[in-house]
Design a protein that fits this description.
The chain is an alpha+beta fold and about 400 residues long. It folds into two domains: about 5-195 and about 295-340, 2-Layer Sandwich (Antithrombin, Chain I, domain 2), CATH 3.30.497; about 200-290 and about 360-390, Alpha-1-antitrypsin, domain 1, CATH 2.30.39. It contains eight helices and 15 strands. It has helices spanning about 35-50, 60-75, 75-85, 95-110, 155-165, 265-270, 305-310, 350-355; strands at about 5-20, 55-60, 115-125, 145-150, 180-195, 205-210, 215-235, 240-245, 250-260, 285-290, 295-300, 330-345, 365-370, 375-380, 385-390. The strands form two sheets. Strands 2, 6, 7, 8, 9, 10, 13, 14 and 15 form a nine-stranded mixed β-sheet that branches. The chain has a six-stranded mixed β-sheet with strand order 4-3-5-1-12-11. Helix 2 (about 60-75) runs antiparallel to helix 3 (about 75-85).
């Protein structure tokens, strides 16, 4: 691409602070069509991400899906066709698809409570030299579209907004000024904080060995408890699965633990399908749970994964005439900055200490010891869509 060609960034950000486990959720409501598209995209993107080097993985495919959806709205011609296929959108008018997603987001936002916080935010920064989209009210409202002089590099203003919507978990996305060629920045943010239904007692946390794929061990802090959890066995993935719900709203963390302690968790994850959770048959079972504390902070370059999924034109000979009549406007970079921390208590310890933990030692418990690499999915069971997906290969590493 020529150095003087106008371009724009698409940036997705996510943060999560997760705290404690237990209980069995009720039956989910009917799946929204938007979640079907988002789930298919999530699985496809996750498989591309995990094909990279053997390290911890954290991604919010939903955040990337929504950022690409904003790009789709302004796309035309073959660029529009590619993005529509990438996003798994059905036939119909573009605005109908966008309205459906707005309803979907409103449903997700309804999950918020005193014990659970979920923030979904979009913002389009448009250079003041570009005309505003003709039908901007159809896809952005209020402060979602901001016009400014991008040549003066408003990275501090963008970073301030990011810091606010992620509750300070992600301080910034741009370490320095933007390039002189940037004409638009699309930012999507997802932030979540939840309390476990049954919190871990910090006094039960102790140091232990986590077995790496290399057959080496690292010392990490393991949380533990004996409680009833929903359990399932996946013969396709050759893994045991445990469901750890949050206090309310039908959001859970699903942990996929490979049967082979020294097997490849990424090879297992590469076999997942859009129904990899809904197809499982869960049963409550008394469980001796041992789970590592971990924190992951990552920046993931999504250019190549998205190209591999078929979105090639938006990075080169793109047509974004829905955003601007300016010729040669294309995407220069798509990145996601992510953060997650899993602890016994988290930032709202008072809410956790009010919980009553039942003594489950009276009956026999079956072990579920996460002492080797595993996959996790933070899933909205009500709307049937993954919010976060990840792989922990080494809990002692923050990267």
């Amino acid at each position: 691409k020529c150095s003087n060609m106008p371009s724009f960034w698409m940036y997705t950000i996510l943060g999560a602070c997760l705290i404690g486990t237990g209980g069995i959720q009720g039956s989910p409501i009917k799946m929204l069509p938007a979640s079907i598209s988002a789930t298919q995209f999530s699985v496809d993107l996750f498989k591309k991400i995990i094909s990279r080097p053997d390290e911890n993985v954290l991604i919010s495919p939903l955040s990337v899906w929504e950022a690409c959806l904003l790009a789709y709205y302004g796309a035309a011609g073959s660029t529009e066709v590619e993005l529509k296929t990438l996003l798994n959108l059905k036939e119909g008018k573009k605005i109908e698809a966008f309205n459906l997603v707005q309803k979907f987001n409103a449903a997700l936002k309804s999950l918020k409570s005193s014990e659970f916080a979920l923030t979904l935010a979009n913002r389009v920064y448009l250079d003041k030299t570009l005309p505003e989209p003709v039908k901007k009210q159809e896809f952005v409202s209020g402060d979602e579209l901001v016009k400014m002089d991008l040549k003066k590099s408003p990275h501090k203003d963008i970073n301030k907004w990011v810091n606010e919507v992620t509750n300070g978990k992600i301080k910034s996305i741009f370490p320095g000024p933007l390039s002189a060629n940037e004409r638009m920045v699309i930012v999507n943010a997802v932030y979540m904080k939840g309390l476990w239904m049954n919190p871990f007692d910090p006094s039960d946390t102790s140091e232990g060995d986590f077995h790496l794929k290399s057959k080496k061990q690292v010392k990490v802090q393991f949380m533990s408890q004996n409680e009833e959890f929903a359990r399932a066995t996946s013969t396709d993935l050759k893994a045991e699965v445990l469901k750890m719900p949050y206090i309310a709203n039908g959001v859970s963390m699903y942990v996929f633990l490979p049967n082979d302690k020294h097997g490849s968790v990424k090879e297992m994850a590469a076999k997942i399908s859009p129904s990899f959770i809904s197809a499982l048959k869960f049963k409550p079972k008394k469980t001796d749970l041992v789970f590592p504390k971990f924190k992951i902070e990552q920046t993931t370059d999504l250019n190549e994964p998205l190209k591999e999924l078929g979105a090639k034109k938006m990075f080169s000979s793109a047509d974004f005439s829905g955003f601007s009549s300016s010729q040669g406007l294309s995407v220069s970079k798509v990145e996601q900055k992510s953060y997650i921390e899993v602890t016994e208590e988290g930032t709202e310890a008072a809410a956790v200490t009010d919980m009553v933990v039942t003594d489950s030692m009276s009956s026999k418990s079956t072990p579920f010891h996460c002492d080797h690499p595993f996959m996790f999915v933070i899933h909205d069971d009500t709307h049937k869509v993954p919010l976060f997906m990840g792989i922990v290969t080494d809990p002692s590493s923050k990267a």
